[in-house]
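Each letter names a residue; the fold follows as tokens. Both lines appear below:
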Amino acid sequence: MFIQPKPQNAITIAVSSRALFNMDREQDIYEQQGMEDYLKYQIQHEIEPFAPGPAFPFIKAVEAVNTRLRELYPDSEELFDVVLMTSNHAHVGLRLINSINHYQLFIERFCMTGGNSLIGYLKAYHANLYLSADSLKVREAIEEGIAAATVFSPGKITEVPETQLRVAFDGDAVLFSDESERIYKAHGLDKFFEHEKAHENKPLDHGPLKGFLEALGKLQQKFYAKGQRLDCPIRTYLVTARSAASSGTRALKTLRSWGLETDEALFLAGAPKGPMLEKIRPHIFFDDQMFHVEGAAELGTVAAHVPYGIAQKVQSKTARDVKKDMPAKQLE
């Protein structure tokens, strides 16, 4: 039996039940027939495990990293700690437990709020990341300063590595603030390039997921310290629409000023991100623009929308408009 790390020492990932498992059938019952029929169905089927949801491969890869960390540092509590954070009713708990045991997931912490807000619990658990299928709950978390993203199921199944966690990040309004993106939206590409050239030695402010990249970097350093840089089970990627020569310098210098790095940096100069992500095969990709999230998902990447920054005001489609997302009346 593994020892559960203390929340203040761990990298805590809070995941909703509908991000971890596919609960589309159950959600339909809730929406069409109401709460009582929904709970009755869950109880009648509680020995049947849910099918995996979009965040499932990511959580499995996180647990594979923990296995490696425990081998190298048996007494360390600097591990990933996964918390199931759901607004579901406690009656659904048995089916969730049975599903977790069926897939041999190591998730011991549950928080089932019965429809109440999760924000206070996310803060109490010191959540480093919150993944949900509910865009409204994610927006609430972002507004409270919690790193969060709405996870979408990919359009096709893509095999991802089981022994190396791969996480891809957009730059502006994800790792970085939306400062530069505001210049681009307001004044166009030429002014954006001028602004970035003039400010290339001034680090950008941090975005909502900077802290999660930092947490991943700390775990990577533990492997490097054991001579395992080339066999590290965590790999990170910067996948940005920025151009390398025209605006890439500031992005890289910003990461350096924070003492951070990504293993790979891809500057796509406005080209679609989906095809490149299809080659990377990350467990999850974070972006602030639904255009890129949708493009990645169509080609098989589990993409997560970070509702932060100027793009949320100008893009024509938000996470709530996407077919895969659920309406306001939903359980998580």
In short: The two ends are 29 Å apart (CA to CA). Residues 56-72 form the longest helix (17 residues). The first strand starts at residue 11 and ends at 15.
